[in-house]
Amino acid sequence: MSDFDLILYENEFKLIDEELRKLHNQANAQVVFLVDKNGQLIASAGDTHNIDTTSLASLTAGNIAATGGIARLLGEREFTILFHEGEKDNIHISLIGQRIILVVIFDKRSSIGLVRLRVKKSSEALARIFDEITNKSEKEKLEGKISESPFAEISDEDIDNLFR
């Protein structure tokens, strides 16, 4: 996620949560996740009790990174949609705006066609929300309301000295 610091505001988080719940219901999915490219879970909808969400988020981001490497080898910029089919469960992964990963886990109660259709509509809505978040963050940064990361001035040398 180079040069993209995600600062979620309450209003936008509510919009994201609402969109994920809507996708969860309309796609007849088991679980819907939103993950950043660093592997951090942003939000989810559905039953996550039996899922290690931290590992799933991290592995999904790794999957996108690995597939991005394959894409570049083939002369593509990136593959924006991935699909994995299992015996019982399927997973649809899509990249939104080159920065956010949308994950939909579904079983035989749904179909890939329905999931793709609903993901396309939700992706457009989520892209607008994240554009709004980015614009708001940039505006606040310019106005001095948001400071640089407190870790920005820490160098590798500082870290090495800390552990000596």
- Overall outline: globular
Tell me how many strands there are: 5
* Class based on secondary structure composition and strand pairing: alpha+beta
Beta-strand portion reads 15-25%
Percent range of helical residues: 40-55%
Strand count, sense and closure of the main sheet? 5 strands, antiparallel
Supply database-style keywords.
single chain; 164 residues; alpha+beta; Beta-Lactamase; five-stranded antiparallel sheet; 4 helices
Structure write-up:
The protein is of the alpha+beta class and 164 residues long. The protein has one domain: 2-Layer Sandwich (Beta-Lactamase). Helix content is 46%, strand content 19%. It contains 4 helices and 5 strands, in the order αββαβββαα. Helix 1 runs antiparallel to helix 3. The protein is globular and about 55 Å long.
List strands and helices in order, with pairings.
Blueprint: H1 10-26, E1 31-36, E2 41-46, H2 53-73, E3 81-85, E4 90-96, E5 100-106, H3 112-142, H4 156-162
Antiparallel strand pairs: 1-2, 1-5, 3-4, 4-5
Helix pairs in contact: 1-3
